[in-house]
Amino acid sequence: GEMLVPLGEATPGGLSEAFAEQAAALAEGGVDGFCVETMTALDEAVLAVRAAKEGTGLPVMATMTFDRGPKGFATSMGVRIDQAVDGLLEAGADVVGTNCGCGVAQMADIVGEMGAHTEAPILVQPNAGLPELRDGVPYYPESPEEMAARYAEMVRAGARVLGGCCGTGPAHITAIVEAVKGA
Length: 183
Description:
Elements: H1 12-28, E1 34-39, H2 42-56, E2 60-64, E3 67-69, E4 72-74, H3 81-91, E5 95-99, H4 104-117, E6 122-125, E7 132-134, E8 137-139, H5 144-148, H6 151-156, E9 159-162, H7 170-180
Parallel strand pairs: 1-2, 2-5, 5-6, 6-9
Antiparallel strand pairs: 3-4, 7-8
């Protein structure tokens, strides 16, 4: 929950130590791998990936959250897709990708751009649309069919690990599975 200096008070050494401690405890508990997800700062994501990979030797997936801006896709901290892919792979990630932040239409574009920068497996987990407040409760407007309709395209663009983030339920996953059979 802390940002790295100079934007926050966390130091690279302190954060690395905390990530390594968490990874070691999880590995001791029997996890099969790690997913470092919903990252916006590449320096923090790199520390988490390295701590998990170097400390345990287990597979590590890492995703960042991108938004479309005037100069293309970037995280809220200004990390472009090519920078994220290169940095995460260099840190030791076995799978790179994107999750949260947007619906399936934009996510298909992000996966396409990621696929142009790497042959590594890509993980994609879009939201079921952007949340809307309805009577004070978050509502995600994309139906299972709307989400699933774009997944075959993402598989063709290089996505190999598929899922969903905020607002995704069992019906969404069922529709996604059906949509990518044979893709």
